[in-house]
Design goal:
By secondary structure, the protein is mainly beta. It contains no helices and 14 strands. It has strands at 3-4, 9-10, 15-16, 21-22, 27-28, 33-34, 39-40, 45-46, 51-52, 57-58, 62-64, 69-70, 78-81, 86-87. A 6-stranded mixed beta sheet has the order 2-5-8-11-13-14, with no helix packed on it. Strands 1-4-7-10 form a 4-stranded parallel beta sheet, with no helix packed on it.
Length: 89
């Protein structure tokens, strides 16, 4: 039941669990893991090896840095890094 938007690129060794929606123009780089029931907005860049926890929503125009772990919804555009992921700009 996953839905992938237009012009979205998903690289090797990624996993998208059940009932996940990924918007248009996203870039999901190698080794990204997205848990179940997530909603990824449009124009989102997920850096190498980042993890998105269950039931998390990410709004449009977000960059998630390599190795970051997103455990809470991201409701504001920007760049997020770290464990857990926090906005840096």
């Amino acid at each position: 039941n996953n839905k992938i938007g237009k012009h979205t690129t998903i690289y090797q060794h990624c996993s998208l669990s059940h009932d996940t929606t990924v918007g248009d123009y996203c870039n999901i780089t190698p080794g990204v893991h997205i848990a179940g029931r997530c909603k990824i907005g449009n124009c989102v860049y997920l850096g190498i090896g980042c993890v998105i926890s269950n039931d998390v929503s990410i709004c449009d125009d977000v960059i998630v840095g390599a190795g970051a772990v997103v455990i809470d919804n991201i409701t504001e555009s920007g760049t997020y890094v770290g464990v857990p992921a926090r906005k840096i700009k």
